[in-house]
Write a structure and sequence with these properties.
This protein is of the alpha+beta class and 636 residues long. Helix content is 54%, strand content 11%. The protein has a four-stranded antiparallel β-sheet. The chain has a three-stranded parallel β-sheet with strand order 1-2-3. A two-stranded antiparallel sheet has the order 4-5. Helix 14 packs parallel to helix 18 and helix 15 packs antiparallel against helix 23.
């Protein structure tokens, strides 16, 4: 298919083109059937043709049982299949697929390979992938890119012959591993039998020896292998096999990044095992993780993140601009020449400036929860206390930037009320306010589920808390006093309840109550029931500690150990398991924790039903395995 943008209508091209992007772009509230119907009709199919496309494609992609499920209810592999089906639907003749099998298990990947191979007739497919075997199976022609440039192109066989390293001879020892003398003797035998043979130090290890055999020596393979079979016992060989160069080897030779290489330390191949040659990464490091190191690390991480995060701008600039504006208004006596009046106006400006701060602080915490980064930190050993303390210190440092500027403006603008009354108690109050504001922000992360909702709705929530006492007290007066005539409220009682309610419900209410009591003492004396400074600061301190304790407790509860339930030992049929699985189970159940750093014992996972009428899905049942120190365990 030739596409010439100068001669063809672009809309005509788009009607024949299907795209499967690297990341699934699906409508969360559309079903599988509705996706295929929509995209088929988008490309010009009638409703009847689109319905027929649904009936043809869903069985091919094994989605017929999921036709009426929303896309957000599908697994990752099923979403990937749907993305490919959408690209093919509507009679697409030119299909671009960016890593179509990403996130699929090996069986589903091979099923999709067969399906794409059967659908290639009458279509042109452009496929990008990181799986070399996928390119080998599907590609009529394969191109390899590196550093943004096309390095080579041709059929799979052409690339293997031109850029491959030849054949790989893999030899396994008769005993558990080769001795140094035995490996050296075998290496000499192979090099004498096959001219140009090379010992592959990188892929060899204690339990196998790997040799690269050139393509030109194929004619000598028959006699050499016969001789190797006859000398197996003499050379200490249990068995051997031959593999042709894979496309992955070609990729490594042509375009891979070879900046990371194993160290050979001058060791001659064949004299020592590969493990003695290649040092373990990080062997010379000492990892001594403790509470203090975690707190410091988390604090630095938060500050480094905020340095490059746009949310930090309103967190600092909005209060900073308001602080400077309040100082200018006071110094220039723009509104009033009375110190008490200017102080009250400054406090009001401060409160308005800090409305958006809790949303910015909570946004980071909620984002980490949504991105599952919080879970990753816990799994990797980060304690709950270290996480919250490190975050608290980092956030307090950020707020301290504007606090220092605020203190400077008090002196620069001659705002005497803020530093002369009560021996400068305003300084201590603002420092306590910062801690209270952070604790309040952390508590609000329980309410909001998305980062955007924190930034948008948290300021509105704070405004609601500021006016809530007025609403409650007004309703109580209308019902209990004016309506039922049960209680008579005096004006002092009403004002006191309003002030205390405002002070207790939010940090901003506490700022209004506390700062005004300090900078405008006449207001405190003139209003009956006004909360004094000591009461306000005591409540702020108590609430700060209480909020942090609640957040820590809830966070610990979210990842608490779940008691194993609904398991019947007798219902497990162990006779159907393979011998190696039974042996691993027995070893795991009897192993000591000190000997096995990782032990999975009788793991069971059940997903609850997503819709009414559906039953729970048992994902894993009685899984047992353990991983020894220094061992890499691969779970497929």
């Amino acid at each position: 298919m030739i596409i010439n943008l100068n001669s063809l209508n672009v809309l005509l091209i788009l009607e024949q083109m299907g795209v499967c992007p690297q990341h699934d772009v699906l409508f969360e509230n559309l079903t599988v059937e509705e996706h295929i119907l929509f995209f088929s009709q988008l490309k010009g199919f009638t409703l009847e043709q689109a319905q027929q496309e649904v009936e043809e494609l869903t069985p091919k992609f094994h989605l017929e049982q999921r036709m009426h499920h929303f896309s957000h209810e599908l697994s990752g592999g099923q979403r990937r299949k749907l993305s490919v089906a959408v690209a093919i639907s509507g009679g697409s003749k030119f299909i671009v697929m960016d890593e179509p099998t990403a996130g699929m298990d090996p069986l589903a990947r091979r099923e999709l390979w067969d399906l794409l191979a059967s659908l290639r007739h009458g279509r042109t497919m452009l496929l990008t992938t990181h799986y070399m075997d996928e390119a080998d199976v599907l590609g009529d022609r394969v191109g390899i890119m590196s550093l943004g440039e096309l390095q080579c192109m041709g059929s799979s066989q052409f690339l293997k012959t031109t850029f491959g390293a030849g054949y790989r001879l893999i030899v396994e020892p008769a005993d558990a591993e080769f001795t140094s003398d035995g490996r050296a003797e075998l290496t000499t035998f192979v090099k004498e039998g096959i001219e140009g043979a090379v010992y592959d130090l990188e892929d060899s290890n204690e339990s196998q020896a790997v040799y690269l055999l050139p393509f030109e020596a194929v004619s000598n393979f028959g006699p050499f292998f016969t001789l190797l079979e006859n000398k197996e016992k003499e050379l200490g060989v249990r068995q051997f096999g031959v593999q042709i160069t894979s496309l992955e080897d070609v990729f490594l030779n042509v375009g891979a990044d070879h900046s990371v290489k194993p160290q050979d330390d001058g060791v001659v191949p064949g004299e020592e095992s590969a493990s003695a040659v290649i040092g373990g990464i990080g062997d010379d490091r000492k990892y001594d993780s403790n509470f203090l190191s975690q707190v410091i690390g988390l604090c630095k991480r938060k500050l480094s993140y905020c340095k490059n995060d746009i949310v930090t701008i309103p967190l600092i600039l909005f209060p900073l601009a308001a602080i400077i504006a309040a100082a200018v208004l006071t110094a220039q006596e723009v509104i009033s020449s009375n110190d008490d009046t200017n102080a009250i106006i400054s406090v009001a400006i401060y409160v308005a400036a800090y409305l958006a701060v809790p949303g910015s602080l909570a946004e980071f915490i909620v984002k980490e929860k949504v991105d599952k980064l919080r879970n990753v930190l816990t799994v990797m050993g980060c304690t709950f206390e270290a996480y919250w303390l490190g975050s608290f210190i980092a956030d307090y440092f950020l707020l301290s930037i504007t606090t220092v500027i605020m203190f400077v403006t008090w002196f620069a603008a001659s705002m005497d009320n803020f530093y002369e009354i009560y021996y400068g108690l305003s300084f201590v109050f603002v420092l306590l306010f910062n801690a209270y504001l952070i604790a309040f922000s952390y508590l609000c992360t329980i309410i909001f589920k998305t980062p955007k909702s924190c930034i948008i709705f948290l300021p509105l929530f704070i405004l609601f808390l500021l006016i809530l006492p007025n609403i409650v007290i007004t309703m109580m007066i209308l019902i209990l006093d004016n309506g039922l005539d049960l209680v008579s409220f005096s004006s002092d009682t009403i004002i006191g309840a309003l002030l205390y309610g405002t002070m207790l419900l939010s940090p901003h209410g506490a700022m209004v109550s506390g700062l005004l009591a300090i900078v405008a003492p006449d207001l405190d004396n003139g209003v009956s029931g006004y909360p004094n400074v000591a009461t306000t600061m005591s409540c702020m301190l108590i609430q700060t500690v209480a909020y942090l304790a609640i957040v820590l407790k809830l966070d610990q509860g979210a990842t608490a150990v779940i008691e194993r339930t609904d398991v019947n030992e007798k219902s497990l049929n162990l006779t159907d398991l393979d011998e190696d699985v039974l042996a691993e189970r027995a070893a795991t159940m009897s192993s000591i924790a000190a000997e096995s750093p990782l032990r999975i014992e009788r793991l069971r996972k059940v997903f609850p039903p997503k819709r009414e009428g559906q039953g729970p899905v048992v994902a894993t049942q009685d899984v047992c395995f353990h991983v020894q120190k220094g061992e890499i365990f691969g779970l497929l």
